[in-house]
Design goal:
Chain lengths: 195, 195
DNA sequence: GTCTATAAGGAGATAGAC
DNA sequence: GTCTATCTCCTTATAGAC
């Protein structure tokens, strides 16, 4: 509860996310963000101690939520059903609120984000997700399939260019295609010992 | 035939591509490139009239080759066989010489490249390729599938983390998974008129 | 073809008033 | 919580000598 004036902090985050996604992190200066908000650069520094920290604040709780997802997946058996459920949860998360914009930002600024702590955290999480999605089948093809299912969810925004399509429809299509990819990932033997 | 000294121009391109991919276009200064080559910034400006132009030179002939690919696809019927052949040609191109690094650079610097002419050209071509890959089936799912096949080829570098795997194997796996995605794209009716 | 020197500008960040 | 003013640093790019 720190919003005494009207949530300037949140407005900064919103504008920053938009500009970072549109033009890239490096190409967006603090001056630009400030001007959009009709404040000065110095005002930004009251709310965030650096430019990096704006990105951190953007990524923070997303990272946490993905962690929870991975933890859940680990507690489940490495079956096809688990993988489907995991991806469904992930898609729900991605399509909720303005989550998508954060992922779009992430996808489009990968290189820069490598040198930002927020970026590294996100990378780790996505790698972790991909690993969970092919748990039980460590073949190269399975790894590729797992990665592509994530990308199916992410790319449903720009890859599908049909006009007037709703987010719900995008999600449905992404999951249908992803399911097919998941189906090609094998399950480990049910432990041989059956008599 | 301009290499009087030893292809400084080519050495600049090589180092620039490497650093751009590693750290991002914006984060890589001309000073840095020059230092790696043990020359001064001014020397770079003899070979390229601006930083952008280095990127242009990198992307130039790739764009042309993709154009040829698209032109070829247009001359073919929009069948599954054409799509498979198109993706095979594309994969051959991507895995030839040091092409992969250029695509990796492109994938990782999308946002920045939006404001560079070279970047826009590449974007158009990849969109064109995706369109050709789902020619004859304009359903949203088909568009997503087409996009994912391209990504399958591109991502086979980092998505497959099996050690000691060769490029040939990566390509093979990428195409296998991609084929499955292509199989879900429909073909137009063979023109009804059969008796 | 490569150098030294420098111009010109914008970036992130800080100090301290209000 | 936001301002003005300023610091420091590094960038792309150019001019002209060798």
């Amino acid at each position: 509860m720190r919003e005494s004036t009207g949530g300037t902090r949140e407005r900064i985050q919103a504008v920053a996310l938009e500009l970072f996604t549109e033009q890239g992190y490096e190409r967006t200066s603090l001056r630009e963000i400030a001007e959009r908000l009709n404040v000065t650069k110095a005002a930004l520094y009251y709310h965030f101690k650096s430019k990096d920290e704006i990105v951190n604040s953007l990524v923070e709780d997303r990272v946490q939520r993905i962690d929870e997802l991975i933890a859940w997946a680990r507690s489940q058996p490495p079956t096809r059903a688990t993988r489907r459920a995991l991806l469904n949860k992930y898609a729900d998360m991605m399509f909720a609120s303005e989550q998508p914009s954060v992922m779009r930002f992430f996808e489009q600024n990968q290189t820069v984000l490598k040198s930002l702590s927020a970026g590294m955290q996100m990378r780790e999480r996505l790698l972790g997700l991909a690993n969970q999605l092919c748990q039980g089948d460590n073949s190269p093809a399975a790894q590729l399939r797992a990665t592509l299912t994530l990308f199916a969810v992410h790319s449903s925004w720009f890859a599908v260019r049909t006009p007037h399509i709703t987010d719900q429809e995008r999600k449905k299509i992404a999951l249908e295609v992803a399911d097919e990819l998941l189906a090609g990932i094998g399950e480990p033997e049910p432990d041989a010992a059956q008599d």
